[in-house]
Amino acid sequence: MRDRIGAPGTGISRREFVAATGGIGTAALAGCTAPTPNQSTRTGSEGSQNQLNQDSDLPKTSPPEIVNAHEQGNQVTMKSMPAVHDVHPEETMGGPVQLPRVWAFQADDGEPSVPGPIIRTVEGEDIEVTLDNTDGKRPHTLHFHGAQKKWMDDGVPTTTGIRVDAGEKHTYTIPANVPGTHVYHCHYQTHRHIDMGMYGIFRVDPEGYEPADKEYFMTVKDWDSRLNRMMAGEDVSYSPRTRSPDVFTVNGKSAPRTLHPEDGSPIIVEQGDTVRIHYVNGGYMNHPLHLHNHRFQRVEKDGGTIPEAARHDMDITNIAPAERHTIEFEADSEPGIYLMHCHKVNHVMNGSYYPGGMLSGVVYKEAMDTDIFAKLMEYAGYEG
C-alpha cells in the first residue's frame, strides 16, 4: 500500500486525504448511483476466459511505485512475471475492463506493476540493473533511453549478441549521464513485449534539482487487447500488422479507475501549488494530452531542458511514442475537479462508452468534500 495518495510522486498523505474527504467510504457513498455501461468492455468470453482466470494463480498487478535507486546504492534487480491486469474492474462507465495476461516488471521485493516501477537516481551516479530471468519462460532484455552507455549495455540482442534467456541473469551498467525523464523497456521482440507491459520510466534528477510543490509521473499507452487475450489462451487472432487499439490507459488504468486515489493516478493539488508532471508515452500512437482550465509550459523534452526563451503557455502537448514531456503549471484555478485527457476522443472511451479510457484529472484538495467527488469515487470503485 502506497504512503501517498494520487499519481506516483508527491501527493498528499493518506491521513490528509481522509481529512479532506471527511472520511469518504462505502457508507458515505451509499446514496450515489453510478452510471452503468451501455456495452461492457469485457476482454474475453463470459465463460472460458473467466474460468481461465479463476483457475490461474497469477498475481494481479499493483500501481507503479518509485524506486529510489540512489538510496539503495544504485543497485536494482528487475524481474518480469505473468500477471492479470485490471484496467477498470468496476461495472461502471463501460467496465469492467481487463487485460487477462500481461508481463509485469517487479523491482527488488516490490509488487509487479504495469507500467513497471519508476527507477529514479541522481545525475552522475551509475546504476547496476540486474535483469533476473531465472524464473522466466522466454528471453528478455533491458534497454534504457536517455543514457550514453557502453555498447554491450544497450540491451538490443541483434546488435550486442546479449539476450537474457529463461533461467539466466544479466547485469547492465546504466550511467546517469543524461538528466531528465526517460523510458526503459524490453528490446527482445519489442513489438510484442512492450505491448505485453514491459516498459517503465527512468528518471535522472540533475545536480541541484529543485522539486516542485507537487510532482507526478504519468505514462499513457494504447493497447490492442487481442494480444493479451491470445497470450492468456483465448481463441483470438492477433497480428502487429493489423494492430487496432481498443484500450487506452494512464499509468495502466482507464477512467474512471484513473481517479481512484490508491489504484489510479489523480493529479492532487492544493491552490497555489507549483505542479510538475512528467509525461511518458509507452505506446505506439501519438496522444495530444490536454489539461482543463490550466495553462502550462513544457520545460523538458526527452531529457533536454527547453530554454526559457522557447517556452510558452499552452494547454495541450502532443506526445509521440517513447517521447517524454515534462510540464509545469500553477494550481491557480478555482478549487474543483478538472480533466486531463487525450484529445483523440475515441481514446477517451471504454468500448462504446464515453467518457473512459485515457482520462484522469486535476483534483484540488479543497474540492474533495463535495458530493460530485464522492460520486466519482464510487464510479472509480473507492471504498475508503
Describe the secondary structure blueprint for this structure.
Blueprint: H1 14-21, H2 48-55, E1 66-68, E2 75-88, E3 97-107, E4 118-122, E5 127-133, E6 143-144, H3 157-160, E7 168-174, E8 180-185, H4 190-193, E9 199-205, E10 214-223, H5 225-231, E11 247-250, E12 267-269, E13 274-281, E14 287-291, E15 297-301, E16 304-305, E17 316-319, E18 324-330, E19 337-342, E20 359-364, H6 371-380
Parallel strand pairs: 1-4, 2-5, 4-9, 10-13, 12-20
Antiparallel strand pairs: 2-3, 5-7, 6-8, 8-9, 10-11, 13-18, 14-17, 14-19, 15-16, 15-18, 19-20
Would you mind describing this structure in some detail?
Helix content is 11%, strand content 32%. With 384 residues, the chain is mostly beta strands. It has a domain at 57-210: Sandwich (Immunoglobulin-like). It has a 6-stranded mixed sheet with strand order 11-10-13-18-15-16, with no helix packed on it. A 5-stranded mixed sheet has the order 1-4-9-8-6, with no helix packed on it. The longest helix is centred in the last third of the chain and has 10 residues, at 371-380. It is globular and about 55 Å long.
CATH class designation of the domain at 57-210: Mainly Beta
**End-to-end Cα distance:** 13 Å
Global shape? globular
Strand order of the largest sheet: 11-10-13-18-15-16
Strand segment tally: 20
If helices are DSSP runs of H or I spanning 4 or more residues, what is the number of helices? Answer: 6
The radius of gyration is 20 Å
- Low-pLDDT segments: 26-34, 37-41, 44-55
**Structural class of the secondary elements?**
mainly beta
Largest sheet entry: 6 strands, mixed
What is the string of helix and strand elements?
Answer: HHEEEEEEHEEHEEHEEEEEEEEEEH
Q: Into which percent range does the helicity of residues fall?
A: 10-25%
Oligomeric grouping of the chains? single chain
CATH overall fold name of the domain at 57-210: Immunoglobulin-like
Strand content: 25-35%
Instruction: Assign the CATH architecture of the domain at 57-210.
Output: Sandwich
Query: Which homologous superfamily in CATH is the superfamily of the domain at 57-210?
Result: Cupredoxins -  blue copper proteins
